[in-house]
Amino acid sequence: MQAILLSREDVAQRAKRLYTSVIRQQVEVDENIGKMVIIDIETGDYEVDKTGLQASRNLSKKHPNARLFGIRIGYHVAVSFNGVMERAD
Predict the structure, then answer these.
(1) Per-domain residue ranges of the chain
(2) How much is the CA Rg of the chain, to the nearest whole Å?
(3) What are the DSSP E strand ranges found in 1-89?
């Protein structure tokens, strides 16, 4: 399969579209709030874990050249450098 070049913005848009249309209702439960969901933007596969590292490894094993994107469940941002992370509605 030939790789299609996508900008960072395109990767983020695809991931957010997958998250809001399919993944969110499956993962946004109390025990997952604050965890990371890592999404393969080409297959729609995803994994959840505390930091996203193991989820990324697992998805990379399944799909070696996967384009992955991480979203912190229940928050507007994945990380914060000033210590403030705003919860999503």
Answers:
(1) 8-72
(2) 13
(3) 36-40, 46-49, 68-72
The DSSP bridge partners found for residue 46 are 39
Distance CA 39, CA 49 (A): 12
Whole-model pTM: value is 0.84
Exposed, middle or buried by CB within 10 Å (0-12, 13-18, 19+), for 61?
exposed
Which own/partner pairs from 63-66 qualify as long-range (CB within 8 Å, at least 24 positions apart)? 65/3, 66/40, 66/42
* Residues facing residue 49 across a β-bridge: 36
What tens digit of pLDDT does each residue of 23-46 get?
999 999 999 999 999 999 999 999
